[in-house]
Amino acid sequence: MAKKKEIVVQKFGGTSVANAEKIKRAAQRAINEFDQDRQVVMVASARGKQTDELIRDALEVNPNPPKREMDQLLSTGEQQTVSLVAMAIEAAGHKAISFTGSQIRMVTDSVHTKARIKSIDTKRLKKVLDEGNIVIVAGFQGIDENEDITTLGRGGSDSAVALAAALKADTCDIYTDVDGIYTADPRIFKDAVRLEQISYDEVLEMASLGAGVMHGRSIEFGKKYNVVIHVRSSMSDKKGTLITHEVPQMEGILVSGATIEKNLAKVALIGVDNKPGNAAKVFAHLTGAKVSVNDIIQTEVSKQKANISFTVSKNDFADAKKAVEEIKTKVGCEGVFYREDIAEVSIIGVGMRTHYGVANMMFSTLAKEKINIDSITTSEIRISCIVDKDQGDKALVAVCKTFELDKPVDKRSYVK
Ligand code: ADP
Ligand code: ASP
Ligand code: MG
Q1: Is 81 in the pocket of ligand 2 (CB under 6 A)?
Q2: Over the stretch 175-190, which tens digit does the pLDDT of each residue have?
Q3: Is residue 198 classed exposed, middle or buried when 0-12, 13-18 and 19+ CB atoms within 10 A define those classes?
Q4: Which of 50, 162, 237, 361 is packed most tightly, with the most Cβ within 10 A?
Q5: 7-177 under CATH 3.40.1160.10, yes or no
Q6: Which ligand is nearest to the Cα of residue 175, counting in written order?
Q7: How many angstroms does the Cα of residue 177 sit away from the middle of ligand 1?
Q8: Mean model confidence pLDDT for the chain
Q9: Residue 362 belongs to what H/E stretch?
């Protein structure tokens, strides 16, 4: 029997397919792999800022568009790219075929605009690969059990990693507009340094706290199915950052990265009756409205009353508000407070577990900059502060400097 060929999955983000020249360049990368006797599956995003433009179009005709229709619309961006890439590959003399998510039976749940993948059928993909095609799959989209098109949330084309897992590919190359994962977003903190390697857990934490470079759910697939993810630049051949299980840990690294999340809103229910079952009522109602809730803080303020606050992504804010307005009187709530002008700045690092004083270093940094902290949440490996949105970037830069995120780890003064 012929030896099974190695399968390579390559994902190209929006800027990496923004125009004809970049599409040809992406096509050539696939051809280079194919010419080395590998089977190649490309996953492509919508070109440039097209998804943003489609969202703008939708809001012009309906300020609160039905989510099912939103998915119908947004999925067209990726559909255009994949056929263009297939045409570019054909023009370069190779066989290529493109598919939408539904054509390869990328089955998801029915939570429109943030669906989760349930299964991928690789039968058709394997057949066309064996026939000598380069295959191009539209990222970011799937189909639910009612045959309705779904999308996976912003940045969801990174679900190429799930496809890599389903195809048992060893690695998944993520081609993007940065040459790897940095200690912080290099667009905001110019002196951030690139990481050679980072663990799934740390990237997951960074992604959930606003580092837009990778989509969190996609990292979960990589972790579960051992897909090495290589985040790299589509403009050069330089090695980027490897996301793996094993990262040599250096003693004393307090903080490996910092993030900022601006796509956030805060909801606070003030003076809720302090009795069993009320928190459950509030969050059951939000779950029913398909709102994903982050960072819940509940505090007893008297024997009779408690305050409950939480954050949600801006995309869920309208649904969260509606759900809270419906439930508030049922839990004796005295008032609701909403804020949209916030940013959450976080530091992340497994090394924080065993060190004292990290929180204090972060709070003192913000104090020195005269930045007020709205609220604080912590876990073993992260500390997050909500600040005024217009001070967010300044807060991130100050925190990066305090933790010397502009230096490679072995050059940081606090690393023993
Ligand atoms: P693509 O369209 O290729 O998926 P994205 O815009 O989703 O690209 O992700 C790349 C961007 O992520 C970069 O341009 C960068 O500004 C941003 N980013 C945020 N945090 C980081 C980080 N820690 N390291 C690298 N890039 C980051
Ligand atoms: N086009 C989608 C977005 O802009 C998905 C992606 O690019 O990953 O969010
Ligand atoms: Mg992305």
Answers
A1: no
A2: 999 999 999 999 999 9
A3: buried
A4: 162
A5: yes
A6: 1
A7: 7
A8: 94
A9: helix 358-368
CA 280 – ligand 1 centroid, Å: 36
- Does ligand 2 have an atom closer than 6 angstroms to the CB of 218? no
| Cα atoms in the 13 Å half-sphere on the side-chain side of 137 | 35
Cα(93) to centroid(ligand 1), Å: 33
pLDDT greater than 80 at residue 414: no
177 lines ligand 1 (CB under 6 A): yes
Q: Please answer whether residues 131 and 169 qualify as being in contact, where contact means their C-beta atoms are separated by less than 8 angstroms.
A: no
| Structure confidence by residue, pLDDT tens digits, 253-278 | 778 899 999 999 999 999 999 999 99
CB of 48 shorter than 6 A to ligand 1: no
Tokens of 166: 């389903």
Which of helix, strand or coil describes residue 14? helix
Instruction: Give the contacts of 215 (CB within 8 A, at least 6 positions apart).
Output: 152, 153, 154, 155, 156, 157, 158, 159, 207
Supply the pLDDT for residue 249.
65
Residue 15 beta carbon below 6 angstroms from any ligand 1 atom: yes
Q: How far is the CA of 178 from the centre of ligand 3 (A)?
A: 11
* Mean local confidence (pLDDT), 36-64: 97
Average pLDDT over residues 290-310: 95
155 lines ligand 1 (CB under 6 A): yes
Every domain of the chain and the residues it spans: 7-177
Closest to 365 (Cα-Cα) out of 342, 397, 341, 343: 397
Task: Please tell me the distance between residue 367's alpha carbon and the centre of ligand 3 in angstroms.
Answer: 33
Instruction: Supply the residue whose CA is at minimum distance from atom 21 of ligand 1.
Output: 185
Mean of pLDDT values over 64-71: 96
* C-beta of 77 in contact with ligand 2 (< 6 A): yes
* pLDDT of 117 over the 90 cut: yes
What are the start-end ranges of the E strands in 141-252? 141-143, 149-151, 171-176, 197-199, 228-233, 241-244
Confidence of residue 410 (pLDDT cuts 50, 70, 90): confident
* Residue 178: CB atoms within 10 Å: 21
Q: Is 155 in the pocket of ligand 2 (CB under 6 A)?
A: yes
Task: Give pTM, 2 decimals.
Answer: 0.93
